[in-house]
Specification:
The structure is a homodimer.
Chain A: H1 11-18, H2 22-29, H3 37-50, H4 56-63, E1 68-73, H5 79-94, E2 98-103, H6 111-120, E3 125-128, H7 136-142, E4 147-150, E5 160-164, H8 166-179, E6 185-188, H9 195-211, E7 220-221, H10 227-239, E8 246-249, H11 252-265, E9 271-274, E10 287-291, H12 294-310, E11 321-324, E12 327-331
Parallel strand pairs in A: 1-2, 1-3, 3-4, 4-5, 5-11, 6-7, 6-8, 8-9, 9-10
Antiparallel strand pairs in A: 10-12
The first copy, chain A, binds a DNA duplex through helix 2 and helix 4.
DNA sequence: GTGCGGTGCGTTAACGATAACAGCGCATGG
DNA sequence: CCATGCGCTGTTATCGTTAACGCACCGCAC
């Protein structure tokens, strides 16, 4: 953290060159009408000559408000979160904000420090994909700036959030498999402590109940954290006595791990899963994916946040919960096609 | 850009509560040894009670140096760039910097404004994946802060950059196809104005020359910008009189478009391409991919930048050019396997 | 000529934190 | 008993910008 000296010309320098005070330079740059045309031109000339740029840090200090919002995601390498970030960026730019981005790498214990740092940098608001279930640090942050949660809901916090139709999407995709006649569907899930994990399991369950099929308890695996753990879990399931006839995966990483396992085992099973992903349409596998617009989650979150920022003085509205719609897309399965049907009982 | 009022307690507030001056609070927070234990405790107690956080904006102004670096990428939705961003973030965090991220969406005309904005926000340095070939705005930015280019080289600019072995990687992958006996390899490339496009074509060409095979001029397509344009170009090539026996794609998006085209056409051809991508190993296609560590590009770029920041006073070193290694990975092709060989002449 | 409004610009005092310096009290030594 | 020094803390000025106010000057009306 070396100090930076000689950081370039200031308004005073510009003023000296244009033979006016710094205040007049400020007025010119602000497009204040109370400046004569001659002066204005002299100032612009001096700005150009010196390559002067207004110091946003000093402005922030004087004016209040840094023009930055903070975004904390759990894993930027996952296209889901990078698209979410793009959505945030899009709306932020539209409203003149910049985005300070941090990646928590799904390590909940790092999150408090990250957030403190963002608050110290005077972000005007935060959008967070919380990594863990403890959210005390978010409550602390809310003392300073508004916080909007994305993809995962608040736990005992009164704040806005944007969610996906986790329950509904999981239920619908599972229902597709059930409608195809499957009764032994394995469940490959992320840690149940995560909201999405729990909620998607609930949807999986509900779909079974609706058609009166008992879920295959022995085929439920939770706590899968990435593609590799999902691959291992899938391989185990394939070796089990009561082999599944289809798989349900709670996110893109898990689906990919399962696909890899099937490929290596030289076999195939219909898969339903949350999140669409690149090339899902060309795998030639019977896939039933819960697709949705990750950008939209970011856009909605940013809009909720900016709405609060623009009405800071007004009485804060009650916390809002926005839901982004999902839709099921099917690949390699045409209705009436036998490919997706369970094999005759082994 | 609403002004923010009542932005929380200041050092004066903390000082008043702890019955000391703001200066002493500053000293305590800075871990200055010249403060008595009793005072230190009172200050900490006051900080806790008020939920005080040091205002980084004010510190930046006083100390010089905002503790932020700017990153401009062309397309965050592409895993290549999100990984690059992760690499930058990793090193930045290690050295106590934060990352201000912007996406230029491959629109070269937006880039100057984005960069001006980052400079205004007092970033101490910039890492840029330049979207176009005009780089005058980068020269302007360099008047204020050091700039490091990533993935694409400077054009008439004296600055550090981090590149991939574009030429070498393309040559090697092409050589694999040639070694398999292919002589009619289609080239599917991004716009030749982009350095990577030109360089990878050069590698493609060189590989041909080395084995004395004339490149198939009629099968060269350039200017493909995304998966969809690549798909269309591939479909056309498949219908051409002189059909290719293999494809070379200059990036992940183009490979994916080509794969989709083959899938839809119900046919298959060996593909070589730059960039690895998710699930490339389970497609069951003969793929020869130039793989490399995108994170590493970000890390190296960040290190080059931070090195300059930490030696700001010293004479600036000559501009450096770092290259990240590539390696070829092959899927669905075992040596001696007939799958990757060209079909007997049609 | 005096007064009055308006135009165009400068001066002052912040925003919050901190470097540099000054000052106070107490102990120690001559 | 006073000089000297050290340990601890406060005061002042500053980073670059800007809101609020003030002042000089011009023109116009009475």
């Amino acid at each position: 953290m070396t100090a930076r000296r000689g950081s370039g010309p200031t308004m005073h320098d510009v003023g000296k060159l244009a033979q006016v005070s710094a205040m007049t330079v400020s007025r010119v740059l602000k497009n204040d009408p109370g400046v004569s045309e001659a002066t204005r031109e002299r100032v612009f000339a001096a700005v150009d000559r010196l390559g002067y740029r207004r110091n946003q840090t000093a402005r922030s200090l004087r004016l209040g408000g840094s023009g930055m919002i903070g975004l904390v995601v759990t894993n930027l390498a996952n296209p889901f979160y990078s698209r979410l970030a793009l959505g945030v960026q899009e709306v932020a730019t539209e409203y003149g904000f910049r985005m300070l981005l941090s990646n928590s790498a799904e390590q909940a214990d790092r999150e408090p420090d990250i957030i403190d740092g963002l608050v110290d940098h005077q972000v005007e608001g935060l959008i967070v994909v919380p990594a863990g279930s403890r959210q005390q640090h978010l409550a602390d942050a809310m003392r300073h700036v508004p916080v909007v949660l994305a993809a995962r809901p608040p736990a005992g916090l009164d704040t806005d959030c944007v969610l996906v139709e986790d329950f509904h999407g999981a239920r619908e995709a599972t229902a597709c498999l059930l409608a195809d006649g499957h009764t032994r569907i394995a469940f490959l899930g992320n840690p149940p402590a995560l909201y999405t994990g729990a909620e998607r399991l609930r949807g999986f369950w509900a779909a079974h109940e609706e058609v009166g099929v008992e879920p295959a308890h022995a085929l439920i695996r939770q706590g899968l954290v990435d593609s590799a753990t999902a691959e291992r879990a899938t391989l185990e399931l394939l070796k089990a006595a009561e082999r599944p006839t289809a798989l349900f995966c709670t996110n893109n990483r898990i689906s990919q791990g399962a696909i890899r396992a099937l490929y290596k085992a030289g076999t195939t099973l219909p898969i339903a899963g949350f999140d669409d992903f690149d090339l899902s349409d060309v795998l030639g596998l019977p896939l039933t994916l819960v697709s949705y617009d990750a950008d939209e989650i970011g856009r909605r979150a940013a809009r909720l946040l900016i709405d609060r920022l623009e009405h800071r003085d007004a009485a804060p509205p009650a916390s809002r919960r926005v839901t982004v719609a999902t839709r099921v897309v099917r690949h390699g399965v045409t209705s009436g096609d036998e490919q997706g049907r369970p094999a005759a009982d082994a």
